[in-house]
Design brief:
Length: about 300
C-alpha cells in the first residue's frame, strides 16, 4: 500500500484570527453601549451578530490549537484531532442560525411601535463597525481559501460589514426623514444576511461529516487517470472524502497488469500513481491496495 501524508491546517492563520477577534470584541462593546443609549434595534442586532461571530472566532482558535497540540495520530484517533475544526464550524453555523431567528422576531415586534432614535450616534457606531470589519476582511482573505474555519470567520466578518452598511443606511434615513421604522427594517436586512451564510456553513459541515466526495474532485476523471496509469488494468472500491478542510483522503483497490509480479514492479506502479495524483489532483492522503487479475472474484463486498 502507498501512503502520502501532507495534512493542511489553519495554524498559520491563528495570529490573524486573534487580531480579528480583538477587533470584533471592540466593535461589539461600542455597538452594545450605543444601542443601549439610543434604543436602536438594528445596532443591537448587529452587536448580537458580532457576539455570535466572536464566539465563532473563539471556536476557530480553539479548534486550531487542539488540532496543533493534539493532532498527532494515536491508537484511537488515527487522524488525530483534525476534525475538531469541522465540529467547531458546525456549532458556529447553529449559533448564526439562532441569531437570524432572534433578530427577525425582534424586528417584527418593533413595527407599528417604532421608538424615536438618535440617528447621529447610531451613524457613528455603524461607521466604526464598517472600518473595523473591512480591516478584518483584509486579514482573513487569503486564509479563507485554505481553511473551513477561516472561511467561516471571513463570511461572518463580511456579513458584519454588510450589517454595518445597513446600520449606516438606517441612521442616515432617520437623520434625514425621522422615519424611525428604518431601524427595524435594517434589523430584518441583517437577519436576511445571516441566514444564508449559516445554512451554507452547515451544508459544508454536513458534506464533510457524510464523507461526500469533495466538490473540487471529479471522481470520473480521477478513475480515468488511475486506469490510464501504466501497469494498471482496472480500479474499484474508489473512495474520496475529506477529514477536514485542506485534508482530502483517497483509497482504492488497483488491479495491475499480469507482468507486475514482484515488489519492484509494484513499487513502480505506486510511484506513478502518486505522481499522477500530485500533478492532477489535490489529494493529501492516498492509500492503494495492489491486486492481481482475478482477485476481485474473491471479494464479496465491493463498491465500484
Amino acid at each position: 500500500m502507498g501512503h502520502d501524508h501532507a495534512h493542511g491546517s489553519g495554524v498559520q492563520h491563528r495570529g490573524r484570527l486573534a487580531i480579528v477577534l480583538a477587533l470584533s470584541l471592540t466593535v461589539l462593546v461600542v455597538e452594545a453601549v450605543i444601542a443601549v443609549m439610543t434604543g436602536s434595534l438594528a445596532l443591537l442586532a448587529d452587536a448580537g451578530h458580532m457576539l455570535g461571530d466572536s464566539f465563532g472566532l473563539v471556536m476557530a482558535l480553539a479548534a486550531i490549537t487542539v488540532a496543533q497540540r493534539g493532532g498527532a495520530p494515536g491508537s484511537r484517533r488515527t487522524f488525530g484531532y483534525h476534525r475538531t475544526e469541522i465540529l467547531a464550524a458546525g456549532l458556529n453555523g447553529l449559533v448564526l442560525l439562532g441569531l437570524a431567528v432572534w433578530v427577525t422576531v425582534s424586528a417584527i415586534g418593533r413595527f407599528g411601535d417604532a421608538p424615536e432614535l438618535e440617528g447621529g450616534l447610531i451613524l457613528v457606531a455603524g461607521a466604526v463597525g464598517l472600518v473595523v470589519n473591512v480591516i478584518g476582511l483584509a486579514l482573513l482573505r487569503s486564509g479563507s481559501q485554505e481553511s473551513l474555519n477561516v472561511r467561516g470567520a471571513y463570511l461572518e466578518v463580511l456579513g458584519d460589514a454588510l450589517g454595518s452598511v445597513a446600520v449606516i443606511a438606517s441612521a442616515t434615513i432617520i437623520l434625514l426623514t425621522d422615519f424611525y421604522a428604518a431601524d427595524a427594517i435594517a434589523s430584518l436586512v441583517i437577519a436576511a444576511m445571516i441566514l444564508p451564510r449559516a445554512v451554507s456553513l452547515l451544508k459544508d459541515v454536513v458534506e464533510v461529516l457524510l464523507e461526500s466526495t469533495p466538490s473540487d474532485v471529479d471522481l470520473v476523471e480521477l478513475r480515468a487517470h488511475i486506469v490510464g496509469t501504466p501497469g494498471v488494468k482496472d480500479v474499484h472500491d474508489l473512495h474520496v472524502w475529506t477529514i477536514t478542510s485542506g485534508m482530502p483522503v483517497m483509497s482504492a483497490h488497483v488491479v495491475v497488469d499480469d507482468d507486475v509480479t514482484g515488489m519492484v514492479e509494484a513499487h513502480a506502479v505506486l510511484d506513478r500513481l502518486r505522481g499522477c495524483l500530485a500533478e492532477h489532483f489535490d489529494v493529501e492522503h492516498s492509500t492503494f491496495q495492489i491486486e492481481p487479475s482475478g482477485h476481485l472474484d474473491s471479494e464479496h463486498h465491493v463498491h465500484h
